[in-house]
Amino acid sequence: MVTLGMLWMPIVVSAAVVFVASFFVWVVLPHHRSDWKQLPDEAAVRRAIGKDVSPGQYVLPYAADSAAMQSEEYLNKCEEGPVGIVTLRASGRPAMAKPMAMSLVYYLVVSTAAAYVTGRVLGEGADYLSVFRFAGTTAMLAYSGSFFQAAIWFGRPWGPTLKEVADGIVYGLLTAGVFGWLWPR
Predict the structure, then answer these.
(1) pTM assigned to the model
(2) I need a surface site. Which of 16, 72, 151, 162 has the fewest CB within 10 A?
């Protein structure tokens, strides 16, 4: 068994590598540029939402419970549309520092989970491909697994979903490679 303390280096290095890869994927590569679309009359939608709505996740049409979801009024609203989920963030200039820091923390958590699983299964001196397989599978599941639920249940488009799953597979492979390289011998 390999302890987490013995794996601090692959944890930190793999998180840093994924951080850089994520930056490259979102800033340099063009494949996510088509993930969002502009509403036909953005100004009218912004006026309709107004400034008094707090940040959060909203659904339209809204039903407070399952009984309300069976009402004729709710069903008619669903039929006539639009139907969707809207996420509103706090107003203000976009700031990147906090989301980037939170992403790095998330990458450290995923790398720690990969270290924990791999360290429980393999011992010191394990061969590169065995380490690659366990660390990579754990990281890929963490980076990609939840996107399917959002597409299945919340109507997230499949195109962006599959692109983010592919990104997660790359991040998992990078994590696997770092763990295989830096595994205690």
Answers:
(1) 0.89
(2) 72
Secondary structure string (H, E, C) spanning the chain = CCCHHHHHHHHHHHHHHHHHHHHHHHHHCCCCCCCCCCCCCHHHHHHHHCCCCCCEEEEECCCCCHHHHCCHHHHHHHHHCCCEEEEECCCCCCCCHHHHHHHHHHHHHHHHHHHHHHHHHCCCCCCHHHHHHHHHHHHHHHHHCCHHHHHHHHCCCHHHHHHHHHHHHHHHHHHHHHHHHHCCC
pLDDT in tens, 94-129: 999 999 999 999 999 999 999 999 999 999 999 999
- pLDDT for 67-89, tens place per residue? 999 999 999 999 999 999 999 99
